[in-house]
Each structure stands twice: as structure tokens, then as C-alpha cells.
Amino acid sequence: MIENLLTPGKPISEPSPELASAIAAVASMPLGTQDAIREILESANDLTQAGADATLADVLQRVFVRSVGEFFTTQRQSTQMPESLIHYILPVNDGIALPEPSETIEVPLGDVLGARRSVRNFSIVPMTLQELSDLLHHSAGRRAVEAGYGIKNVPLFRYPSIGGLNSVDLGIVVNRVEGIESGFYRYDPVGHTLVMHDRGDLRLAVQDVTFEAEWLFHAQVVLVFIHNQDKVNWKYKTRSLRFSHVDLGALMQNLYLVSTSMNFACCAVAGFFDEGANNLFKLDGTRQFVSLLMGVGPMGRLTLAEPE
Ligand SMILES: Cc1cc2nc3c(=O)[nH]c(=O)nc-3n(C[C@H](O)[C@H](O)[C@H](O)COP(=O)(O)O)c2cc1C
């Protein structure tokens, strides 16, 4: 099968030793992996036929473009949420309750949009638990429930997400928040609680898995954007990866705007080592992985110049 894909319509009679060993390696892989490789080869082939000498980024882009075909099949797609995902629409049982969040944000939206910027300078003052509750609720909390996917009460959140499936989970490294132990937590937006996953001061561990982000050490909290592909793959298949990153952007901007309205410093961080960050937060790196970090907290008085 694989050799036919390498030169469609023209089977290779005598593959080179390298090609023969590559074909043998692919043939010994699980069927799902073989399908993935076939998608990649077909995409590379499309580009070659069009006369391109494609880079990896070109080939991957082509894979995603072709994946729209997955929707226009003759088979009816299920609109029923898989059983294994139902727990995501229910509150977590053993979460630590956050204080009742403030009802509204009083700062005009235009002022917030005008003032928003990345600030990498944090005060020595800790964040209060009330502030953490407000930050999480207004950026990422539940706003309503609606019937969908064969279920009566599917929660809807404060940022748009593909299929309303909320593909980004929010982790929180608590460094300096009054009234809650330092450690790593996950936010449950349905029950508005925090679930502890790791205990202790993680500032040096976070420093170890980031680069050019020394300032992050001083952030009162470090938010960890975790892509949870299981929530969206069942419905969106290959395209889930592409569009769940759009969800992440929407959530990131909410956090920037709510932080600005609270007069908090806030800055996104792409400068982290994938493997190290995934290990630190005990994520498998494939179905769940760190997509972005963000330092947030009360602002220091001296605002540092932006790095070049
Ligand atoms: C996805 C993303 C990743 C970023 N990663 C970093 C980073 O690793 N380190 C950093 O200092 N700033 C980072 N930033 C902040 C940008 O440098 C900043 O948004 C940009 O310079 C524009 O400035 P502004 O946010 O003040 O408008 C990131 C921003 C985004 C949106």
C-alpha cells in the first residue's frame, strides 16, 4: 500500500534499501498510524503534483485543508456526546470551592481594550482568593446551560469554542495566593472550583521548563492552557487540532482583558519546552498537552521595557 502511495499509479518494482526498510517499518505500525502516514504522503503528493517542493509546514497545512472531506461524507455524523465525556459537563466532586465571584466587571470595554498590553512585572503583594475567583469566572467560567448532544444541560462558557466543546482546560500554578496552598490545580468551570493535582512551590520547576521568561518566577499565578483533544476529536477529527487552537486564542484574550480590568499584570508565554512542561503537569503530550502559559497577578510599580 505505502509504495503505491509514494508514486501513485506506478508501483515501485525495486525500492532502494532505505525505502524498503521505511516501508517495512510503516507496515509494522498500528493501522491508525499507517492511516496517518498515508494522509501525510497523499498531502505531499498533492503538493508535488502541483509542482511544489514542499516544507513540513506546507505538507501539514495540506493535511488540514484536505481534512474538510471528513465532514462531507455520506455517513451521518453522531450528534450524541460520547459516554466518556459526560463527566466534563458535570461539576467535579472533590473541588475546592472558590468564593462567589463578583457579579460584573464595571470597567467600560473600550477602556479595557485600549489599555490591554503584556505586562511582565508583578507586585510583591499576593493575589487574594476572591481575585482569583473573579479572574477565572469572568474569563473562563460557565455562563449558561443549553440542551445539546442528546443532553439536557450542556454548559456554555465565557469564550467561544468549536462545537461549544470547551477544548482548552485551564491549569493554575498557584505561587502566591492568600488562602490557598501553593501547587498545581485544575479549574473546574462547571462547579467553579479548583482541583489540586500537585502540592508545593513550583516556581523553580516552571522556570526550568521555560526560556527567556525569568519574570514568570514572580507571577502570583501561572496559568497553564491545556489542549484536551479528547473533547473535540470524536466530532471534528483531524480539524479538531486546528480549531481548538482558535478556542485557545479566545480564552487567552478573555484572560488578558479581565486581567486588564482588574489592573493585573498579564503576559502569555510561548517560550516553554514541550516535553518538560507536559511532564511537569503530568500530561501525555498527545491527547493532552500544554499549549500556552501565562503569568497573571497584581502589577508591580515599575513596568519593565518589553524585550526586543
Ligand atoms: C501566543 C502568544 C505567545 C507569547 N509568548 C510570549 C513569550 O514567550 N514571552 C514574552 O515575553 N511575551 C510573549 N507574548 C507576548 C507578546 O510579546 C506581546 O503580546 C506582543 O509583543 C504585543 O504586545 P502587547 O501584548 O503588549 O500588545 C506572547 C503573546 C502571544 C499572543
UniProtKB/TrEMBL annotation:
Domain of life of the source: Bacteria
A GO MF label: oxidoreductase activity
Occurrences of domain Nitroreductase (ranges): 115-297
Gene3D superfamilies the UniProt entry points to: NADH Oxidase
Protein name per UniProt: Nitroreductase domain-containing protein
